Amino acid sequence: MSLAAVLLNYNDARAAIESAERLCAFSCIDRVIIVDNKSTDGSEMVLREYVKNQNLNKTYGTAGGAKNSDVTTDTTVNSKINTNQESNINAGGRVVLVENERNGGYGYGNNAGVRKAAELGMDYCLIANPDTVFEEKAVLTMLSAFGNNECGNTGNEDALNDDVPDDDAPND
User: Fold this and answer.
1) Average pLDDT, stretch 44-68?
2) For 101, which DSSP code?
3) What residues have CB less than 8 Å from 52, skipping those under 6 apart?
4) CB count, 10 Å around CB of 48?
5) Exposure winner among 3, 40, 99, 130, fewest CB in 10 A?
6) Residue 127 in 3-state DSSP?
7) Closest of 121, 97, 96 to residue 31, by C-alpha
8) Are the C-beta atoms of 31 and 96 separated by less than 8 Å?
9) In 3D, which of 47, 5, 19, 4 has the Cα closest to residue 130?
10) Nearest to 121, CA basis, from 146, 100, 89, 92
11) Alpha helix locations (H) across 37-99?
12) Global pTM?
């Protein structure tokens, strides 16, 4: 059972990095996906540097066979991965940065992270605000409940479909 944590960032790279550090310490989390939702304060550059260098600064536990030195940066255009970008390093890494071309709102940003988790083959996805702090035991309890079919998902496969209108689409 694989799990990715999605962190949505907008103009607060410090909080996203602090949250990623906490989540990387959880043995039950296989990938941490940071989505920069078109920040205007230079966050994307700070996050790129963090993702490239985080393995030099910390030693993390490993989950699902992920190596603590694995990092990946993806540049995203309209939330679709552009593999021609030079910023794509160490494909398959534990920490991934997805950069949205525009800020389409909370749902749009999180959906970009969920799409990336699906591309990485993750079974489950935890959407966590960067300023949320919780214990690993809570995540393990949630995974156990999902594994025992004690609860269902709260998402909708259509939410990942590009044909579904974005959050900022005009209402008729």
Assistant:
1) 62
2) S
3) 71, 73, 89
4) 18
5) 40
6) strand
7) 96
8) yes
9) 19
10) 92
11) 43-57
12) 0.71
